[in-house]
Amino acid sequence: MLDKYSGGFYSRRGHRGDTHRMKLGYFTMPLHPPERPWVDTLREDREAILLCDRLGYAEAFVGEHATDAAETITSCVAFLASLAHATRRIRLGTGTLNLPNSHPVTVASSVAMLDHLLEGRFIMGISPGGLPSDMEAYENLGKNRTETFVECIDQVLAIWAGEPPYDIKGKYWNISTGKTMIREIGQGVIAKPYQKPHPPIVVTAVEPFSAGVAAAAARGWDPISANFLLPQWVQSHWGRYAEGCAQAQRVVDPANWRVAKTVFVADDARTAREYGFGARSPYRFYYDQLLTKMKRAGRANLFKPAKDAPDESVTLDGVLDQLVIAGSVNQVVEALLAFRETVGDFGTLLYCGVDWVDRELASRSLELMAEKVMPAVNAALASSAQRGAVASAL
């Protein structure tokens, strides 16, 4: 069903209209115990995505941080390049490139190379970055990083759209190869990506009612809602996305909205409960890390149902209960349908990767998600849509 929204058009499905099949993807900003050998965690993170490819996951996004012993992928471009010829179907995405911590020429050239390695199976995820120690190390702590972020992506796109010797000027960077260019042998030329005019661009949405979602949508980019937001804050992104699409006269389609969710599936509920919430749970470790970082950075609001709630009200057990779905296949199906009922329709569910405390359980969860959970979720959505269509026809 198409309806008008603020001068643009939108298609809202699910309990608000028709529905289509929801895709399954993977998202990881891998958090591992700092004492684990780096060789092992990198191998494990690659293994997870290779398994996703075999299981038919549509896409996989990988984050990066340069100054964190727990988040051990320091360059998502380099990491994804290691997977280019080891994967067959899955689209791979940066999740995300933290643009203020780089240079537009570095971003443009490395992303172009990765897009060619993947022969177009690439999605460009970008953000200003959010880790304070990265900001300090790159000397942009306390600076206008949003402004830097915008200038960086503007210059990257200008490089790809332009021709050497460029002559791109900005507040933070000036780019030219005019003094040293030797056109006849190719010196001074910055590579263009495989996809034309450039790879699809997505942004992560990590705040309630994110203004960045509207700004991105107005530029033709699509959002990924973070897994560490309460469902009501995830839902708030839809209005912002529709607002931005209306500004650009884009058709607003929930199929372009990706939502990350922390999920664990097991063959029985008892195992799922222990692995999802127990003392040795990797999900407990993951959210203990995130909660500590967010509280220290003054961002505990992400975990609060109300802004005026005191920081002391945000506890690790409470965060786990609100943000982690762990259960048997049927329990997870029911929980995901309830989650979707709260946030509205979206196109891709991104399963969030965590440390593999138990390799067998972790890989089994990925299998069950692809082979049991998502088929059941999509069958339920199709059945609901069919009943809605019949009711509308009466």
Please sum up the structure shown:
The protein is 43% helix and 16% strand.
Helix-strand sequence: EEEHEHEEHEHHEEEHEHEEHHHEHEH
Identify the strand order in the major beta sheet. 3-4-5-7-10-11-13-15
- The averaged pLDDT comes out at 93
Distance between the amino and carboxyl termini: 17 Å
Question: Could you characterize what this model shows?
Answer:
This protein is 43% helix and 16% strand. It contains twelve helices and 15 strands. Helix 1 links the parallel strand 3 and strand 4 (59-62). Helix 3 (104-117) packs across helix 5 (145-161), helix 6 runs parallel beside helix 7 and helix 9 (282-296) crosses helix 10. It starts with a strand and ends with a helix.
Give the arrangement of secondary structure elements.
Blueprint: E1 2-5, E2 8-11, E3 23-28, H1 38-55, E4 59-62, H2 76-81, E5 91-94, E6 97-98, H3 104-117, E7 122-127, H4 132-137, H5 145-161, E8 166-169, E9 174-176, E10 201-205, H6 211-218, E11 222-225, H7 231-247, E12 251-252, E13 258-265, H8 269-277, H9 282-296, H10 316-323, E14 324-327, H11 329-343, E15 348-352, H12 359-393
Parallel strand pairs: 2-12, 3-4, 3-15, 4-5, 5-7, 6-7, 7-10, 10-11, 11-13, 13-14, 13-15
Antiparallel strand pairs: 1-2, 8-9
Helix pairs in contact: 1-12, 3-5, 6-7, 9-10, 11-12
